[in-house]
Structure formats: C-alpha cells, structure tokens
Amino acid sequence: MSDEKPPVETPAPPAAEAAAPEAQAKPAAPKPPAPKPAAPAGPKKWEPSGEIAENGAAAALKAKFGDVVTGVKSPCKEATVLVPKARLIEILAFLKEDAACAMDYLSDLTGAHYPNNDKKFEVAYHLYSLTRKESLRVKVQLDDGEPCPTATGVWPGADWMEREAHDLLGIVFEGHPNLKVILLPEDFDGHPLRKEFPLGGAQEEMIRSNKYGKPVYLPEEIEEARKIIEERRHDS
Amino acid sequence: MTAEQQAEKVSPLREIMETREVELNLGPQHPATHGVYRALVKLDGERVLGMESIIGYLHRGIEKWAEYRNWTQATPIFDRLDYVGAVLNCHGYVGAVEKLLGVEVPKKAQYIRVVLDELQRIASHLVWLGTHGLDIGAQSVLFYAIREREAIMDLFEAMLGQRLLPNAYPIGGVRFDFPKGWVEVCRRLLDVLPQRIDEYEGLLTGNRIWRQRTIGVGVISAKDAIALSLSGPTLRGSGVNFDVRKAIPYSSYEDFDFEIPLGQNGDVFDRYLCRVREMRQSLRIIRQALDGMPEGELRGKVSKIIRPPAGEAYFTIEAAKGQLGFYIVSDGGDKPYRVHVKSPSFVNLQGIETMCKGNLIADVVAVIGSLDIVLGEVDR
Amino acid sequence: MNGVARFVKMVTFWELLKGMAITSRFLAKPKVTELYPDVRPVLPYRTKGRLHVEIGTCISCRMCEKACPEGCIKVFQPSKEVFKTDKRPVEFYLSQEHCLHCGLCVDACPTGSIHHSQEFEMAVYNPDDLLFDKETLPYDLDLKHFRWNWIENAPVKK
Ligand code: SF4
Ligand code: SF4
After folding, report:
1. What topology is assigned to B22-379 in CATH?
2. Separation of alpha carbons B252 and B118, rounded Å
3. Which of A27, A30, B334, C65 has the fewest C-beta atoms lying within 10 Å of its C-beta?
4. Per-residue pLDDT tens for B284-323?
5. ipTM score assigned to the predicted complex
C-alpha cells in the first residue's frame, strides 16, 4: 500500500526524457501544445501554497534586480525568491557583499526533483546573515541535464553540498573544482533521489519476490499466508 | 614550494637518499576515525601537505527512505542519523513538520523537549569527550564520561522507553509527562554533574601533555570557518558567536538565561573548552526548565493523518554537533515529497583539510576528534 | 611569588599529580558496573521491549498494521459473519526481526491491545524464531518479575 507510488509515476519521466532530444533538435514549436492538454488530465504539478513573505534582504534584492527576482509562496511565511539561472552567481555575490543583505553564511544547499513540472529540478540555497540575523531562501529552476553555475566561488563551503546534490540528483554544477562522487560508490548507476528511481534500487524486484520477505508482502488470503510462513519455518 | 625548499634544507643526504611524498590511507577501519571514514593524506615526512576525505561508507539512503513512508512513519528513521544524539534529530524533523503544518506546540511540551534535548546534548558531549581523550591518549576520561552518560541513558529509558534511539517526540508535542520520581533523579544528576565535569577538567585542561597535543593544532580562522559553513562548537571555537538557540530561537529557548561559550584561536583546545563549557550551560538550562515547568497540554491539535499544505519549510536546531537543518517539501499528500538533512557533521568535515594542512600526521587524529563527527550523520 | 609557585608546579608535575589523585580516588569507591546475567536489571516501567498483543481485546482494526513503518505486522480479519459477533483476528503475524521498537503501533491502537513488554532478551540462533503468530505472541505470563507497561497506553473513557 505504501509502495505504490513509483509504478504510477514511472510513465511520466521516460516520456518527458524522450521528448527532450526532439525539442533540442527542432525548434520548440511542437512542444508548447503538448503540456496544455496533459496538464488537467495528467499528473499533478508541484506548486507551493500560502503567501509570499518579505524581509529586508528580499526587499533589497528586488530593489536592485527588479523584475528578474520573483517571490515564491510559502505556507509558513519564509522569505523565498526565485532567480533566473543566468544571473544566479551575480545575485548570490550581491547577497553576500551588500550591506543591506550581508548573507555571509550558507546554511544549506540542496535540490529537489519535480518530474511533473515544466522545469524538472530546483536548487535551493538557504542563506543566513550572521550580522543581521535573517534568513532567505534563493531558488533556481533547471531543466533535466541543464548545468547550474557553481556557488563555490562565493562560499567555499558549497563544495561538498554541491557534490552531494550532483551525486544524488544528477545536477551538474558548472565550474565546480572537484565534482566527483561523494556519498555513492564510484560505479553506482543512477541518481537515487530522482523520483523514478525505485526505493530498493536495482534489486527492488528481487526483494519483492523474495519469499523470505517481511510479513507485509504476505498475500491477503490467510491460507496462502500460512503456507508461506510454514514453508519458511520448515526451510530453516 | 616552501615545503620542498624546507625538505631540501633539512636533508643534505638528498643526493644519495631519495625522498618523496607519500600518500597514506587513514581508515576506513581506523579506530581514531570514529566510524568508517577514510582520509587520503599526502605526506612529506610527517608533515601533512594535503588531504582528501573519502566518505559514503555508511550511506543508507535515509532521505529516500522517508519519501516512501508517511509523515509520522518517517520519524523513527531520523534517530539513526546521529546515533549518539538521537533525541535532537527527532526534534529537528518533528519541528520542521510542525512548522509546515502551522501547529502550535503547547508550552509544557516545549519545556519537556528542552530538558530532554539538553540532556541529550550532554550525553553526546560526554561520548565525544571520552573518545576524543582516548584518541589523544588520556584513557581514564572515557570510563568516567561513559559512567555519567549511563545515568542520562537511564533517565531516557525511564522517560522515553529506550536508551539510544528512543523515537522521542510525536508530531505536535510529547507523548508522556515525566514519570513519577523522574524529576528528583534528574535534579540529583544536575547536582552531581558539575563536580564530575570538574573532574574531567582536572584530568585534562591543565594537563601539560593534553595542552601540548591540542594548543595551536588544527587552527582555523573565523573567516575561513564562516566561509566553509562550519557550525556548532567547531565554529564557536574560532570565536564566531552563532548558536541557533540564541540566533533563531525555537522551542522556547528565548525563555532561558544561558551563555554561549566562545573560543579565540580556533584550535583543538578551544573547541574542547567550548564543548566542556557548553555542558555546564546545558545544566543551567535544564535547571531553569525544570523550575519553570508550566502546566498544560502535552500535545497540540494534530489530526491522525497528517497532510501539510503544499510548500516547503526549513527548520534548524542546534544539535550537539552544530546546526542541524531539515528542508522538507510537501505536495499536500500524506508522504514527504522530499526531505533533505543538513547534517552538521557532513559540513564540518569539510574544514578538516584547512585545519590539517601543515600539521603533523599525529595531529590529524586530534583534529578528527575535535570535529566531533558521527559517520551516521555524515553519510546519512 | 607567583612565578615561584608556577616554577614549583612545573618541576613537581603538579597538574599530572592532580590527575593521578582523581584517578586513584576511584580505587576505593564501589563498582558501578553490573553483572548482567547474574543480576537482572530492574527495567523501568516504560521500557520498549518485545511487543505483546492481547488477542482477547484486539478488534482486528489493522491500525497497527498501517502505522508500522517497517511492515512488521500483518492482521487477518475474520469473515464478515464472524466479525459481527467476534472481532478477534484469525491470525496475527508480527516480525520482531525488523521491528524498530518505535512504538508507533502502540500509539495507533484504539484498544490498547498491542503494547511493549519488558522482555529485552531477543537473541536467537534462527531469525525465524522472531516471527510470532497468534499462539506465540502473548508473552509468557508466568514470569512474574516482568512488569507490563500497557496501563499507560490503555484508553481511558472520558
Ligand atoms: S514498534 Fe514500530 S517497528 Fe515495531 S511493530 Fe510497532 S510500529 Fe512496527
Ligand atoms: S490496532 Fe490494536 S485493536 Fe487494531 S488490530 Fe492492531 S492490536 Fe488489534
């Protein structure tokens, strides 16, 4: 019951991936009509609820960069801004240097995979100002396989966090000095935190079909379940 | 390079005897690495020229695991991140979900959480003190530290049912009030512990062997520490005043009067002093929380099936190792869409290269000990 | 004066002597270690030991099964006719092998039928011995020195 999610979702990502090379080869003309009929019938898009929160740093950022910076809704009133990828590093450097922002501490850097959204990946930077005691979340949206500029030039501490996001989600950070595996084995295939990756990894089917599995995989019929348990006891 | 010039100067026999850099594997099964951590150290004689950390031996995919359970079921797994500070991890996750849900935790539950959190912090620091002492060669501290930790574990067992991984808090509050007689035992422990901490300090702080092994070793400046996003006592040892309990108060920490111990030089000794003083401050907080324990409900209004609104939340607490952050994303369903853990050990371990460069190989062990890493949290 | 005191401390290894004194003080103190198999520890009331199920009061609602993060529990409801009069499960499988001892099933149970006992000795030679069914699940009540912690989890009528 709790593991039904992946089979439902698997049809979506391969279709999207298959569509991607086409879109690169041709101009984007045939693509826009496709998502429109799919949107109401197809899988749900991820969209935050709540309202847009403001704080000093977000206001200063909007005053400087104007309409390229947009506020993001947040249900718990955390100041969040969405910035375009092309000007990301410029904005991050401004946030760090400017006296009205002074976001000198990179608290966290991570990403998330949204296979049903138009832009499939999001990278979130959680910044904190040690002097002004204020936090801000900066987000940038990426397509599948689209590189993200590295933040290691602004905060050297982003080094391992970017390596981790590269490992688990497959986001490429352009210009990173040492972008290799950190948590996974070197010969690991795939990116586990993508939604299409099964929980059990490549061995998922083997675990499920194993008769030595946990009782949760027992059939709903009591006689069959008893037989399996008896067999298991007999074997050992 | 200066190191090469130095090597040339000190070894006139270089013409006959070839000298070269050595790459040495420290770990992954080395007792001083506190788990399965491997460091590839580049050496010139005994001096460390460079260092590379290789981690991931304990990666269990906890973030992925949580996406397949519902919001309540995901709570026990986060205890397994930092297994010597399990209560704090549980608080981090539960607090993030509460923030997203907009649940008000009753005052009494907040105070109980503060008491248990601070006890856990002391327990975690005691394990660190014992093992760090053992690394540098002070063996007897381990026995004394573990003895006191056992008393705290007994308190946990009486309160939460388990000693190490208690799954301490449900979403919205706490499960039980303190059992009968628990507060008295806890107060007795509060009276005893300051003397015991004096004992550890008597064994270590003035000890000239300890001082020679730690002072001036593994130095990191405040500027570097901030740039590398270090947190917790590792950051405060360099003199940066950043403690989440004061900076972004949660769970009623603004009610309590306590100080944040700061170091000056950012070496191993300062980080040691910071942690030892932090234990004393924790005792102060527990005493204030027990004295001012309010009456009231234990759990806020949370429905049985938890469905936070679609959106994201980032909640940080001050864990024993540093700033522990939970970034959770909900799609409005009953399962977490994405849970990301900002684990302090993982980020603090980044600083090891800066700290070790130019030190001796024996100091690497002291630096690893002073970072207080738990590999379960580094690899997740 | 201060300098002299410091000199004396330095030559006499004062701080090392102090450490030795602390260590040697414990020579005369009583032991704090316990001899476990000979002396059974008295476990507190809330200890989360092996799970115990009162089959008599269980109403086969499967709340515990849905609450468990590890899927340790499987409850089989009786057929519809029987269920009207007798709600007890026909079979109740519980695998302690995978159990996290988290207590979420205990929280979820509406009747307080499932609860932790104080048995902690669960080392077995064969992992299948940790798979309990309806007959083996109720914990042996003859061992009087174990107390039960179900009173706290039992529902109270308000
Ligand atoms: S204690 Fe936790 S893991 Fe064990 S059966 Fe109950 S819910 Fe499942
Ligand atoms: S939740 Fe309680 S009453 Fe319901 S099936 Fe489980 S043990 Fe029986």
Report:
1. Cytochrome-c3 Hydrogenase; chain B (1.10.645)
2. 13
3. A27
4. 999 999 998 888 888 888 888 888 888 888 999 998 888 9
5. 0.83
